[in-house]
Structures
1.
Amino acid sequence: MINKADSILKNIFGYDKFRPLQEKIIHNVLSKKDAFVIMPTGGGKSLCYQIPALIFEGLTVVVSPLISLMKDQVEQLREYGVQAIYLNSSLSQEDYRANEEKIRNNRVKLLYVAPETLLMKKTLDLLASVKVDCLTIDEAHCISEWGHDFRPEYRQIAELKSYFPEAVSIALTATATPRVQDDIINNLHLKESQKFLASFNRHNLYIQVVRKVNPLEQTLDFLEKYPNQSGIIYCFSRRQVDDLYEELHYRGFSVLPYHAGLSDSERKRHQEQFIKDDVQIIVATIAFGMGINKPNVRFVIHYDLPKNIESYYQEIGRAGRDGLKAHCLLLFNYGDIRKINYFIDQKEDKERRIAKMHLDALVRYAESYECRRIPLLNYFGEKYSQENCSMCDNCNTEAKDLIDVTVRAQQFLSCIKRTGEIFGAVHITDVLRGSKTKKVIAKNHDSLSTYGIGDDLSKNQWLSLSRQFIQKNLIEKDPEFGSLKVTGKGYEVLKGKRNVMGKLEAEEIKFTARAETDLHYDKNLFEILRSERKEIADKLGIPPYVIFPDKTLIEMAAYFPQTVNQLLKIHGVGKVKFDRYGKKFLNIVTDYCIKNHIGSITKTRRQRNSQITKAGKTRRYIVVTEAYQSGRKVEDILNEFNFKLGTFLSHLNRYVREGNAVNTDALLPLLEIDSAQQKIVLNLFKEHGTDLLRPVFDELDGKVSYNDLQIMRLLMMNKEVVKNK
Ligand code: ADP
Ligand code: ZN
């Protein structure tokens, strides 16, 4: 049966292989063993029940809490040619009845249903008349009062299991907290052994925390790196949302606001426009994001501090569901923390303690200099042990310029001592920078020897250093008053017995695009494909990603498929989608290739090659050849990679030697020898073989350059490859 699952994965969904755990879970479900699946957002939970649903003879019932989610899933499944429907309050009476009829006549494989609808007697009666093979409980955390989304009706679903004696049940959630998980297990009478817990590491998210100095400027600089890309910006308050929306809108960004102050219909419309790629950016309070499944969100910015680590992780999790890279930025400053603390202080005792704990964890996370994934995953009980994730600010060498800050530490610590260890970081900084604040004057601190000795650093740089000193346990901060004290370790620094390494923050942080795909692809072709997709989607009234995800278009623009078989190898192209849209997209690619003299790149061949290096990067010769195959000028490629023609030709040589064809048209003009000489060279290669250039070079007394020999050899080998295809 698992073979069947394999072929469905490929033929219906168009994917090459299962993700971790998917196969195991599907195997379990097919053997009618209940399963509890915990995977992060974008982990691939849906296939775990959708593939069995297509194999089972009977019906799969999927309980889902939100109408928008049901709609999205059903739209996607229909595009794959799968018979799926939903029953909920959004349907007209007529459609509702028609759907019931389809169930009665066994004409559907998957039924999505709201919990309250499922609990109705008439629904249960209807389902009793057909064979139900699987009961899926999606967003299973709704069962738990500890979850962020408790739904009382979910509680009753457990009792329904007895209505479907033949059905296996599978519960799925992206909630990582153990308490919620235990609740789900208890409520659904599952066993610990039936739990499938995937890693919560989202390797495709680039995670960055930056000191918030001038948030608007910073945001603009960031957005400049992601033109035409979808993203969400989270703000703390409605007012902030409106203000930022105005600013961005005024500057010509494609942007809309989203918060609880807007009417239901406005909110719905804005969300819809975002999903359909009609608008690129949503500025929102945290209310936004639940129940949307847009896979190509390329960035999430936290303009203000999130509520706690869990919601932060959930919010950044809305980026990069398609598995392509996405950039998550948190803007963080101490003013915000003071503001939140102020709110927290107004709360009741217990609530206040919990809120403070959450805030502290968040501050610790933001201040940390270790890999961002360590504290994040640790929060969810997972240990991240990779040395360098390469996808966070702290693991990226540029940000990790540690320098010797021993003298700075001595200045700071001695200033603490001299002022009697009763002041906080702001005052110490004022003294060091020689400020004439009221407090400095009143306390006579302008007469201290440390007054003004640190005026070459900015206030923010000193404050950042002070936090590092706290982290390194050189100073202690009084939890109540915020005053600083020098620790034993700190004294060692003062006495010159210990050195301190740290990071001196740059005054201005410029952003770099971090969500670029590794695959080199033709951007022009991608845009053409994208607008075709949008046109089709608009005609059908569905989101573009339902037709094909971005990854599919990117692969098309990288491999230039020009035959049916080549197209079927592209990610996300299954048989039904191929039948529906294949021709259209194939024609576009073919036309484009003819116009631009581009040959196709065989995807399977590439995959057999040892193309990935240990560091997880695509090998250079492939990157270079792809750049060339995408129609770019040789001259531009040499400039970009900063190497000589000979090196470039060696890269192509390696690619062709592995059995891949390239388009040789652009190489011919580079030849400096005439056709008579070319013939001679070809004959010599036939005689000496193509492994080495030297014998041919020597035979010609060095009259033909190595570059020309390389080109001739390429032409010859390429011809062989094409012939053997
Ligand atoms: P979740 O429900 O866990 O948030 P989804 O089921 O929506 O995640 O899957 C996220 C994305 O990954 C979807 O676009 C889905 O089609 C894709 N996906 C799932 N499994 C695979 C796979 N084995 N290979 C490639 N893509 C996959
Ligand atoms: Zn890291």
2.
Amino acid sequence: MKKVGIIMGSDSDLPVVEKSMFALDELDVPYEVHVFSAHRTPAEARDFAENAADRGFGVIIAAAGKAAHLAGVIASCTTLPVIGIPIKSSTMDGLDSLLSTVQMPSGIPVATVAIDGAKNAAILAAQILALGDDSLTQRLKQQRSDAAAEVLKKNKRVEEEYNH
Ligand code: RP5
């Protein structure tokens, strides 16, 4: 199976980005994690993106906060799909990161998830890889039906407690 590349702008993003790793572990999807910054280590970020397809990656998740250019820079150096996670790491509650990640110029897309939306980034990455992997598709379907069963259980508990 192809791997997911997970890149973050700083190790201070780890508490959020770990949620992507947990979600990929649950789905048994292989990944590799790096700290590369669009501003502090642009050469390493570029080198990773330019070689990612040849190194067996199928999709890249890029997480960054503040002036969050990482996902866009990565996307400019590869034709692999890039998923951006805007990180809430400043005094602006992540709105700065969201706009910096989502407002890409025409021609270089970044599929941007919600602020701190690391779990959804991982699920979207898995869905992309599942296009060529039937057993991963089955695992994604199972995960959805397990999650639905949990919600129905919660509904039952609330209904029993409050409806008389
Ligand atoms: C961004 O700046 C990083 O992605 C992080 O969210 C933010 C702050 O980085 P540190 O100053 O904590 O290293 O580049």
